[in-house]
Design a protein that fits this description.
The structure is a homodimer of 161-residue chains.
Chain A: E1 3-7, E2 24-26, E3 31-35, H1 48-75, H2 77-89, H3 95-105, H4 107-127, H5 130-160
Parallel strand pairs in A: 1-3
Antiparallel strand pairs in A: 2-3
Chain lengths: 161, 161
């Protein structure tokens, strides 16, 4: 028989009416540890991390296009003009569609598209500061929470006085 | 006189017409090392990481609202109904504005808003899998780049044949 042990890993486990069903770790000494993360509804098969990665993917394409266009500006004015013109008529909201369309525009545009693919990969893996992103997001949530509560307190104390 | 040494840290440094002006490291033996990240134009004082953190901040608020509403559904139907009704009439696009408005709706709504602030902080710091985000985004860029190139090759080889 297996023994089952629940280990709360979050200090906010009192918020948990439902167990988080995403991650189960089975140790080889036959103990099942349940990961007590908060249940996030509405993501179906995907996860919030996959959803966020999807958004970042489009963001990296947007950044790669800006990087490549700025590079072209200084040493290939013709290609810079072509890419700028293409940008005026094609949305960057769906990064992959933008690249697919760019590839099919002309052989010269195809070369630009291939460079954008290469740059977005290099940017994601080498240049983007992932640790900084986590640090900034954590600081942001603290700062904004404090500001929201302070504004409310100031507003209501003003009303009372 | 100082001697200046440029050390390329990215394998894509040949893409670099302009030096990246964000990070300069000055060593105490009087050598200046320039960080050769690709120059990203158009972010002014902010950074791509700050922009991404800003988007994630709203995403965490959206998730916190879903978490809290799912929790309420199972043990406080009245509060669940109130939050659902509020969601129908207020956009979650700007998370901080949503929370500020919720706080000012009624004392009961204020309690819900405070819980949402607490949950978004806990989610960002404890539950969100940052390493997984990086892994998924890196895999996504590889997979999508391969798919875009494969689709193009298949399409053009079909035309040729």
């Amino acid at each position: 028989m297996e023994s089952s042990t629940l280990i709360p890993v979050s200090p906010f486990s009192f918020f948990l009416p439902k167990p988080h069903n995403r991650t189960w770790i089975r140790r080889n000494y036959s103990t099942t540890i349940q990961c007590n993360k908060m249940y996030v509804p509405g993501f179906g098969e995907a996860s919030p991390e996959a959803k966020a990665a999807n958004h970042l993917h489009d963001f990296f394409t947007y950044i790669a296009v800006r990087i490549v266009n700025a590079q072209l500006e200084s040493y290939n004015r013709e290609a810079h003009a072509e890419l700028t013109e293409f940008l005026d008529t094609h949305s960057l909201k769906d990064g992959d569609k933008f690249c697919a369309d760019l590839m099919r525009e002309s052989p010269r545009h195809k070369t630009l598209a291939l460079r954008i693919l290469e740059v977005r990969s290099a940017y994601c893996k080498n240049d983007f500061e992932w640790d900084n992103l986590k640090r900034l997001a954590s600081k942001m949530v603290d700062d904004h929470n404090t500001r929201l509560m302070r504004d409310y307190v100031l507003e209501t104390s003003h009303e009372e006085s």
